[in-house]
Amino acid sequence: MQLDEARVKAGLIQMWSAGGMDALVKVMPIDMAPSGGRAIGYCTSYKFIIGRTPAEMENIVGLRSGSKLLNGAAVYAVRPLPTAAQFMYRGHSNTPEGISTTIKPAHPDYPPGLGAPQWEVFGLTQDKLVLLAAVPAGQTFRYPVAALKAA
Fold it and tell me: Which whole-number Å values give the CA distances from 107 to 96, 99, 111, in the listed order?
């Protein structure tokens, strides 16, 4: 059975468009401002990081512990949502780049995470991101799911 990529991507966009727990989010270091010169990059779903500290987020999304989110995290909603041509599924964070670590060793800065889905958004720049919360180190990410309106 062949996977219909266009159909899968359409389903993802529809899911993200509904908002709520499946909203597409980007986690960045708290002291790094989004740049119009950089693609959005790797994203995940809101439900995998809500209620987590920046240190826990690192473990979930597959960042080396105590590295990028050491000082805290900024969590952004991806708006507008990417079109099917503007993103790729990159597996889950327990398989960096979507490749088993038994086949390709993980980069030391990007060890296997705890299995959050990952999509690489390359067709939109970071200046399109909408800040949901700045989360200092040791604090918990809180943002009301009801406020994640449909896109």
Answer: 8, 12, 6
